[in-house]
Give the backbone structure.
Amino acid sequence: MEPISPLSPLEQALHTARALVLADLVAAEVAEADVVSLVEESVVQRRWWVEQWPDGVEYVAGLVAQDVQDALLDRYGRWPLCPVCGSGDPHALEVEPELGPDPYWVCHQAGVKVAAVGALGSAGQGGTPSSPGSA
């Protein structure tokens, strides 16, 4: 039996992005088979994207989260809904930074970071004030 070779940085980033977004979908109780397929479609597209621009590997998790959010909006509606704002119209969180490492979900209406991508299950009614200029 041959030893298992370690994953490349690209594959590690894609596996991590997949796991983080799936965790958020599970936390929101929307991880149905058709929704999980949206994650897989994004991972395939982002694999190609990073192969073209290897320096973008650290941005994959946020991009996959944005891809899935956009696909869900087109098919089902806003996701993830903001757990911080208790009144007013329901609204979706947004990924910040739009293109950067260590992505997180933010509520622009309240101006707070709600949770890191992958950690929506631990997001309560609080939130951390977002940095100036990103709210």
User: Anything to note?
Assistant: Residues 33-52 form the longest helix (20 residues).
